[in-house]
């Protein structure tokens, strides 16, 4: 029997059980979803033992896990009994929220934000969800929490929604729930909030490290483009229209020609280590038919702006893609000592004062380089 291949798995259409040999089996559910099991003989009995989902384990990883498990069984280890001992009790929402808060608060240097994060949940979410197991919380229960404040306290409601989502996504990652937070359906069940005039809805910068971590859970050209946009505080069109010819990996610079800039002036972006890593990941999507860094489904066409916005909406976020530039500006002002003009140069903003613009002869590249490195360290959490 032929063994499975990564391409073969990607092209599977029909649900069923597909054997890879040596007891490794893929239980394919369709639409890219499935789970790995390994069949072993222990104490004269045949047993099927789960290894994990297709989303979490690539073929090579599943083979390695199966090999390690067979080795344990051969050594006389009762794998299922050991798993049961190690199994953790499913936590309540309040317990899970406190654990998420404890795990993440070190990344929130702003003490006020540390306290606000858990306080908003204690005030608005715990009364209804606190004693529920995280595995039992579905969209209607979340909607009932948000509905009373959705229109009267819209900003608070958004934060509560985002934090509930963070707790449930954490629970999913830990194996306490089968799915991530159902925020998309929750939003659909709530009335449209009145729009603010004159400003793009921006994600509060303390929430960005968790959002970047969520983006990295899966890899797609859209997610890579959005991460690159955030890391460089760029405009959507600048990123979606980026060409490989504009990138100098050795000098760690991205030179955007004047014709693609809003102000009509060439803009040089210093690329942080994290931004360079995104480009390396994006390179695998490169098409011989196009020089675009982040091509659309048709390689010769730009990635749609709606693709980036849809990623936010799929996460249940109400913020805008352009708003990430405001998040960056707020972070510079509140968490760093970099001069405002350096931040403005990073954002490629034009100088309103014509006299000042005439005398300014620098693009602050030397100062923007450490600024963008510090920004990426804040986002990724690396020292």
Task: Tell me what you see in this structure.
This protein is α+β, with helices and mostly antiparallel strands and 383 residues long. The protein folds into 3 domains: 6-86, 2-Layer Sandwich (Double Stranded RNA Binding Domain), CATH 3.30.160.390; 93-188, Tyrosine recombinase, N-terminal domain (DNA polymerase, domain 1, Orthogonal Bundle); 205-380, Orthogonal Bundle (hpI Integrase, Chain A), CATH 1.10.443. 47% of the residues lie in helices and 11% in strands. It contains 17 helices and 7 strands. It has helices spanning 6-10, 59-74, 79-86, 93-104, 111-129, 139-146, 154-173, 183-188, 208-215, 221-232, 236-240, 273-282, 305-314, 323-335, 340-346, 354-359, 365-380, and strands at 16-21, 24-30, 33-42, 45-53, 247-248, 253-256, 267-270. Strands 1-2-3-4 form a 4-stranded antiparallel β-sheet, covered by helices on one side. A hairpin with a 2-residue loop joins strand 1 (16-21) and strand 2 (24-30). Helix 4 (93-104) runs antiparallel to helix 5 (111-129) and helix 15 (340-346) packs across helix 17 (365-380). The longest helix is centred in the middle third of the chain and has 20 residues, at 154-173. It is globular.
């Amino acid at each position: 029997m032929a063994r499975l291949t990564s391409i073969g798995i990607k092209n599977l259409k029909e649900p069923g059980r597909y054997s890879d040999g040596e007891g490794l089996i893929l239980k394919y559910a369709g639409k890219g979803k499935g789970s790995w099991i390994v069949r072993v003989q222990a104490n004269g009995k045949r047993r099927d033992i789960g290894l994990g989902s297709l989303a979490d384990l690539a073929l090579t990883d599943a083979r390695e896990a199966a090999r390690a498990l067979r080795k344990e069984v051969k050594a006389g280890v009762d794998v299922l009994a050991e798993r049961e001992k190690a199994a953790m009790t499913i936590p309540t929402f309040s317990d899970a929220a406190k654990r998420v808060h404890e795990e993440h608060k070190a990344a929130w240097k702003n003490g006020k934000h540390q306290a606000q994060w858990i306080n908003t949940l204690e005030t608005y979410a715990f009364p209804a969800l606190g004693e529920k197991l995280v595995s039992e919380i579905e969209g209607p229960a979340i909607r009932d929490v948000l509905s009373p404040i959705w229109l009267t306290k819209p900003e608070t409601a958004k934060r509560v929604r985002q934090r509930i989502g963070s707790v449930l996504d954490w629970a999913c990652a830990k194996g306490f729930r089968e799915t991530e937070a159902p925020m998309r359906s929750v939003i659909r069940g709530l009335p449209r909030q009145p729009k603010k005039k004159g400003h793009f809805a921006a994600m509060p910068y303390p929430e960005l490290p968790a959002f970047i971590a969520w983006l990295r859970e899966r890899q797609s050209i859209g997610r890579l483009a959005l991460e690159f946009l955030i890391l460089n505080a760029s405009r959507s069109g600048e990123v979606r229209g980026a060409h490989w010819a504009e990138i100098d990996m050795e000098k760690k610079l991205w030179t955007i020609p004047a014709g693609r800039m809003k102000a009509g002036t060439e803009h040089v972006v210093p690329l942080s280590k994290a931004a360079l890593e995104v480009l390396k990941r994006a390179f695998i999507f490169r098409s011989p038919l196009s020089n675009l860094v982040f091509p659309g489904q048709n390689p010769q066409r730009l990635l749609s702006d709606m693709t980036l916005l849809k990623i936010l909406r799929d996460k249940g976020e109400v913020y805008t893609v352009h708003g990430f530039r405001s998040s960056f500006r707020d972070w510079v002002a509140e968490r760093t000592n970099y001069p405002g003009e350096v931040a403005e140069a990073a954002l490629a903003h034009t100088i309103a004062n014509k006299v000042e613009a005439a005398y300014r002869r620098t693009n602050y590249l030397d100062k923007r380089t450490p600024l963008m490195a510090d920004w990426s360290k804040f986002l990724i959490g690396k020292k």
